[in-house]
Amino acid sequence: MDEVDGADDATDGARTTAALTALGVRPGDVLLVHASLRSLGPVADGARGVLGALRRAVGTEGTVVVPSFTPENSDTSPHYRERVRGLDAGAVDAVRASMPPYDPALTPAPSMGALAEAVRTAAGAGRSTHPQTSFAALGPGAARLLAGHRPDCHLGEDSPLARLYEADARILLLGTGYATCTAFHLGEYRMAGPPRRSYRCVVASRGVRRWWEYEDVALDDGDFAALGAAFEEAAAEGDVRTGRVGAAVSRLVRLRPAVDFATAWLTEHRTAGR
Predict the structure, then answer these.
(1) Parallel, antiparallel, or unpaired: how do β-strands 63-67 and 30-35 relate?
(2) Rounded to whole angstroms, how far apart are CA atoms 155 and 7?
(3) Over the stretch 174-232, which tens digit does the pLDDT of each residue have?
(4) In terms of Cα–Cα distance, which of 179, 56, 55 is closest to 119?
(5) What is the largest CA-CA distance in the chain?
(6) Strands of the sheet with 248-254, listed across from one edge
(7) Less Cβ around it within 10 Å: N or C end of the chain?
């Protein structure tokens, strides 16, 4: 693991860009970004300032990608279970009736954080069409990375994660840890015979709101922090770089070796049916 020093107390775009460059972000990079802006500390213009710094760091040929997931329109998500906990049947029915169908152009992703919303709403941004686990992106590679996101494949071979793997993208963990590392989910799909489950969410079919149920791999990020620690300990030189961006320790991780390691580690550490 390589350690680098970034700029202290990043409060403006130039300092944030310099810190990202010191961390190892290069022009032309494809970055899958997870960010805790609270951990970064004050940055001029908030999430849009961070996005501006990211775009300057990757340059005109680089692409910034973020998860723009929408658990708010599903009744099989932990978000929904928390929302209806303690409600009576009538109140639960009212919640379900109020849940809007997914629209890639309009549906917000509030649980993904301010940076994800800044990317999603930026001029020229694209977004994949999965009603639960969409990604948003800015840059010349956006259309290619987001295309073909099959609605019954959250984060597998027919999702942007597989396209990011093919593009030799890097993961940028800005003030977050491996527990939020979405790319590890691709390793779940690449295990032999991963467990599956049913999901359900609200969609629109020819303008008509309806519930849609489908089956996919049972996603589980409960051991991702341990997985990330094991990956970082075993990582080859250059696969993980750490440094400070603003007030936060951040990591720049090569996606391909992270997913390859995750596939093997999850296969070894998870028991059948977990």
Answers:
(1) parallel
(2) 34
(3) 999 999 999 999 999 999 999 999 999 999 988 899 999 999 999 999 999 999 999 99
(4) 55
(5) 57
(6) 2-3, 240-245, 248-254, 170-174, 30-35, 63-67, 135-138, 126-127
(7) C
